[in-house]
Write a structure and sequence with these properties.
- This protein has four helices and ten strands; from the N terminus they run ββαβαβββαββββα.
- By secondary structure, the protein is α/β, with parallel strands linked by helices.
- A hairpin with a 1-residue loop joins β4 and β5.
- α1 crosses α2.
- The longest helix has 19 residues.
- The chain is globular, with a radius of gyration of 17 Å.
- The two termini are 34 Å apart.
- Bound molecules: inosinic acid and magnesium ion.
- The site of inosinic acid has 18 residues, from β4, β6, α3 and β9.
Length: 211
């Protein structure tokens, strides 16, 4: 896991290309897109090594994980094409809603019935960010009712926060400071998904896009 320390203020916005409409709303670029991609490539390799050629259902937690999911699967597919071992992949999607201005204990699952398709399968849950860990714990206990064969979780980001319930995913891209992050499909009230880098949201942005 790549640990980004609390005193890492990120990169100045004008060192990278950021959409004009977000320039006033961001503190800095914390993780540039290229670094996300390089780390994701490595996670794909770790996952393929561990799966030992068993078929896997990759379960994307929408909407926040869609970019990470797509890029991670591209790297896994590239490995499948170029190594002796390959992991047969299928995909599935679930929508969880737990966020409204700040993390709440209230986690809603849209389309729970779909989970019955995962009975007896090796499931890889793909998530964007773990903060308190409650969303993932809720999803895991829900999924267990449908008796999957095995479940692993990969999260691009894990936040270092005193609010954590102690849950840790099996694979982690980056451990990040306790700041509100947007971009690379992570949103603040549906905004900022159209930003390539993971950035720190500033007070202006929080105010502007408040619900
Ligand atoms: P948890 O249940 O507290 O672990 O929250 C996890 C969910 O909250 C994630 O799936 C995200 O949707 C959302 N979330 C937590 N922190 C952030 C953040 O910094 N930016 C954007 N979304 C976040
Ligand atoms: Mg999420």
């Amino acid at each position: 896991m790549v640990k980004i320390p609390d005193d890492d203020k990120g990169y100045d916005l004008n060192l990278f290309c950021v959409p004009k409409h977000y320039e006033e709303d961001l503190e800095s670029v914390l993780i540039p897109h290229g670094l996300i991609m390089d780390r994701t490539e490595c996670l794909a390799r770790n996952i393929v090594e561990d799966m030992g050629g068993c078929p896997v259902v990759a379960l994307c937690v929408l909407k926040g994980a869609y970019k990470f999911f797509a890029d991670l699967l591209d790297y896994i597919k590239a490995l499948n094409q170029n190594s002796d071992q390959s992991v047969p992949l299928t995909v599935d999607f679930i929508t969880l809603k737990s966020y409204r201005n700040e993390s709440t204990a209230d986690v809603k699952v849209v389309g729970e019935e779909e989970l019955s398709a995962l009975t007896g399968k090796n499931v890889l849950i793909v998530e964007d960010i773990v903060e308190t860990g409650r969303t993932m714990e809720t999803l895991l206990s829900l999924l267990n009712k449908y008796n999957p064969k095995a479940v692993k979780v990969v999260s691009l980001l894990v936040k270092r926060t005193p609010r954590s319930c102690g849950y840790r995913p099996d694979y982690i891209g980056f451990e990040v400071p306790d700041k509100f992050l947007v971009g690379y499909a992570l949103d603040y009230n549906e905004h900022f998904r159209d930003l390539n880098h993971v950035c720190i949201l500033n007070e202006n942005g929080k105010e502007k896009y408040k619900k």
